[in-house]
Amino acid sequence: MQNNGIRYEVVVFTAFAEYLIINNNKNGHLICSYFTAVRWNLVQSGINIDFLKDPLIKSGRAALEKLNRLNKSLEEKRFPATAEFVATLSNDLMSLGTYEGFSMAVGAMLGFTCMLRVHEYLHEAPKSIEVDLDEPDDYHTIRARDVLFEFRSKDILGHECSTFVPPAEVHLHSIDNLVAMDFIVPSSKTDQEGNGIPFHVPRMKVSSSVAFDLVKTAYQWSYCARPSGLSPFLSWNDGLKWPSYRKFNVAIKKVAGKMGLPTNKATSHCLRIGGATAMSAAGLPDHLIMIYGRWKSLAFLLYARKSRATSSMAVAAITNPLNLSSNDIVRSYRQQVSFSDKIEQTS
């Protein structure tokens, strides 16, 4: 159906956005999230969604996101974590000598290196007993069955061969042969079909250019906790125990204070944006950062795919503490505060 040359569906969609802005005072980012949810429901209902490609909708969505970024004040922004920050955080958590501390240490490395959202690596208790943990729509956290460790060795003929092992069986294999970890995030807001998002993380041993060894630490966690099946990967006691968001954020704030960073801006999201910032500081192109971090802005980026080579380059850049130091972030924050003070004095 057309209305003055504009499709009826487009008119309804744009009117919905205007209603949310004018009547409900919703911000641009939240409205775009609503759009994503509506798109998902239309796909599941078998409805043709070609109308979402209309320039009015695409430009309107881009404008809402841009307006939202412009409206965010300096005080609302979180700082990006660094490889040094994550290494310190992980060491502090490991020093607790508990399963909870150990699991949060692995989570911090995962969130930073793979730019994951916190609910993708730390489990949150289901709000309903009817939640089916085997359904991607109901479950977003990495499960034990979603993880495989790759071990490489030579056969009797001297040929290299790879063996892929679940977390509950890593104790049967030598860490000396450990080369990588593969895992799948069951579903996310950028995975509209619910197929899951695959990740490949090559092992990077600690050196002057690598702040921490994520794959080795994840192996050690699996060796101790042995999560299996549908249990969250970062859980213990047969999946009955897992760390809390609150304690994780408390630990992050504690390290931020230790490093002279603003604790009121320290949350788990600092890890995700820190990974992106580290890649940018290393000179990696924006499109690779967007693909690796699963940010949706330009539709053509959805057709690009990351390979093992780009995964290795991304992990190497993110975990290199020389690319972006905590002192750089502290210096930047102090400059921002100083600039804000100057504005207040002249106004």
Radius of gyration over C-alpha positions, nearest whole angstrom: 22 Å
Instruction: Provide the CATH topology of the largest domain.
Output: hpI Integrase, Chain A
Largest sheet: 4 strands, antiparallel
Strand content bin: 5-15%
Classified in CATH, the superfamily of the largest domain is: Intergrase catalytic core
Number of strands: 6
Question: How many helical stretches?
Answer: 12
Mean of all residue-level pLDDT scores: 80
Strand order of the largest sheet: 4-3-5-6
Number of domains: 2
Cα distance spanning the termini = 53 Å
Element string (H = helix, E = strand): EEHHHHHHEEEEHHHHHH
Low-confidence stretches at least 5 residues in length (pLDDT < 50)? 126-138, 298-304
Dominant shape: globular
Derived from helix and strand composition plus strand pairing, the structural class reads alpha+beta
Could you describe the 3D structure shown?
- Helices cover about 45% and strands about 10% of the residues.
- It has helices spanning about 10-20, 30-45, 55-70, 85-95, 100-115, 120, 215-225, 245-260, 270-280, 285-295, 310-320, 325-345, and strands at about 1-5, 5, 145-155, 160-165, 180-185, 195-200.
- Strands 4-3-5-6 form a four-stranded antiparallel β-sheet. A two-stranded antiparallel ribbon has the order 1-2.
- A hairpin with a 5-residue loop joins strand 3 and strand 4.
- Helix 5 (about 100-115) packs antiparallel against helix 7.
- The longest helix has 21 residues, at about 325-345.
- The model is unreliable at about 125-140 and about 300-305 (pLDDT under 50).
